[in-house]
Design brief:
Layout: E1 2-3, H1 6-21, E2 42-46, H2 49-58, E3 66-70, H3 73-79, E4 82-85, H4 89-93, H5 102-106, E5 110-113, H6 120-132, E6 145-150, E7 160-165, H7 173-184, E8 187-192, H8 197-205, H9 207-224, H10 229-248, H11 253-260, H12 266-276, H13 279-298
Parallel strand pairs: 1-2, 1-4, 2-3, 4-5, 5-6, 7-8
Antiparallel strand pairs: 6-7
Helix pairs in contact: 8-13, 9-10
Amino acid sequence: MCSSGTLGIAILSGILNSLISSDASDMSQEGGSLPPKIPSRFIACVTRDASAKRIKTALSSHLSSLTILENQNLEGVQQGDVIILACKPKNLKDGILRKPGMLEALQGKLLISILAGTSVESVEEGIYSTVLSGDADPMFEGRCRIVRVMPNTASLIRSSMTVIADSNPPLSSHQSALVAWLFSRIGRVVHLSPYMMDAATALCGSGPAFFALILEAMADGAVAMGLPRAEAQMMAAQTMKGTAEMVQNGQHPALLREQVCTPGGCTAGGLQVLEDGKVRASVATGVRMASVAASRLGRGEQGVNAPR
């Protein structure tokens, strides 16, 4: 079950496509054990009719396995076994998990949060703040388990880079297997310490936008020199994909760059212009600033990109 924003739709699409395009028991991505129960029914929760129509269009071939609920978050949580929280971070501050009956509906379930910059502790506070402030034991029987995860929009084509935060205490073996299985359906998975998640959000969550900008700029340069737009964009995308695959196969980016860069050649001249324009420093700073902004979003701040 998924509270569905843009990323939520991408995740749903990737998982649903994986279930019909391959053997659901195939764990070829990351290895590991299968969860005891493989999900077969999904619920998408939205707040607007336009969002419901968008999901129906995007997932039209999967409607037999998908139920769409509009303004019925509580009902969705009650019916679901695993909840993917895919709303905006500010919705957590606005009390999306504090609605009457929500605490009981979440009892004993697994909640997967993909909220940018939002720690597990913040999600717990969003659910249990009334309990924690009262006399009840905050560790009452059946409290839901929360895990923080950051996939990206390439989930749509099952090419996401997903980061799963280590849980303390660890998830049960069944829960851990289910989380790994779900996100290995839509790409590659890595486990990191919770304190690294904001940087991972900037690199993997924001990364597709950064790479798209660089790809677009390369195509623009080629168009300026006479290439047709469609061919320039396709060529730039394939060049970026091929380079990435070489790095994934063990090539270090610096060595790869040197192999292409003949002394006195055209590549050397182009790289000099990029270095003079501080492209390397600008990209690195962009990742750093996105990491800081993710942290501020998680704290519920407004205007997170304003100068400080």
